[in-house]
Write a structure and sequence with these properties.
The protein is an alpha/beta fold. It has a single domain, classed as Vaccinia Virus protein VP39 (Rossmann fold), CATH 3.40.50. Helix content is 34%, strand content 18%. It has eight helices and seven strands, in the order αααβαβαββαβαβαβ. Strands 3-2-1-4-5-7-6 form a seven-stranded mixed beta sheet, sandwiched between helices. 38% of the residues are buried.
Length: 266
């Protein structure tokens, strides 16, 4: 896979992937649950359907991100890699990393997008992102954050890997302010967090982000006349859910003070 990605030089890989870091912590039971659950999703072919399901809320978010051609971008919880591949077209001079806790999803993404030279897919969790400090100009996570074992720690890790003046974008459909999604929790097979918009925003502020704000991204795609799935009571509730919109929380990493050597004694 590395050889197929010709624009990833040996220097890139040594500096970024093999950068010395503390030994990773042992995977928690929640991490293992997530890995196993999303490995099942990959095996069942559910990774391929994520693009169609999420595109109506993702496209407006990507527009707001204002990705520049030379930006380095991290997609946290990349699934089958469809969003990272789309972003790679907007940042042809940058580096795009898709990261997922599921090794099966990562393998799927690598197979599907082996022809995207400046995109790379890696296994990793948001609580300990396997990347160097201050590298990315943009970080995005879509429909992933409410699964994180420790959301506050995840936001801090995103802050760490962002370059000065970089921005983070968190997009979720499962949040407390939208009453039409609360029933989802009973169907999840892994622990999840049903938090309010202001709780997510406070995680951003506590991590050090500036200009923290949140808004709704309505899903304007057509809705069926009837609904018989398990996620909504009926078609009317599905339409109400989509009208409420996904929650988008974003913030900017302000320029960090640089340490200066002490002045010599006179």
């Amino acid at each position: 896979m590395v050889e197929a990605q010709a624009r990833w030089t040996a220097e890139d890989l040594e500096r970024l992937v093999l950068l010395p870091r503390p030994a990773p912590k042992k995977a928690s039971s929640e991490d293992q649950q997530l890995r196993e659950e999303f490995n099942r999703w990959a095996e069942d072919g559910r990774g391929e359907g994520m693009e169609e399901d999420h595109l109506p809320i993702v496209l407006p978010t990507v527009d707001l991100m204002q990705i520049a051609p030379a930006d380095n971008v991290l997609d946290v919880g990349c699934g089958a890699g469809w969003l990272a591949a789309r972003i790679a077209k907007l940042a042809p001079e940058g580096r795009v990393i898709g990261m997922d806790v599921s090794d099966e999803m990562v393998r799927l993404a690598r197979r599907r997008y082996s022809d995207v030279p400046h995109a790379m897919f890696i296994e990793g969790g948001v609580d300990e992102i396997p990347w160097e400090d201050a590298f990315f100009q943009k970080v995005i996570t879509v429909e992933s954050a409410y699964y994180w074992p420790d959301p506050a720690r995840g936001v801090r890790e995103i802050f760490r890997v962002l370059a000065d003046e970089g921005t983070a974008w968190l997009l979720i459909n499962y949040y407390r302010d939208n009453p039409h999604c609360h029933q989802w929790g009973q169907h999840y097979k892994t622990p999840s967090h049903l938090l309010a918009a202001e709780e997510w925003a406070q995680f951003f502020r506590d991590a050090g982000f500036a200009d923290v704000a949140h808004c709704r991204i309505p899903d304007t795609s057509p809705s069926p006349e009837t609904y018989s799935g398990r996620w909504f009571r009926d078609a009317a509730q599905l339409r109400a859910f989509k009208a409420e919109g996904a929650l988008l929380v974003h913030g900017r990493k302000p320029a960090q003070p640089t340490s200066r050597p002490p002045l010599p004694m006179l």
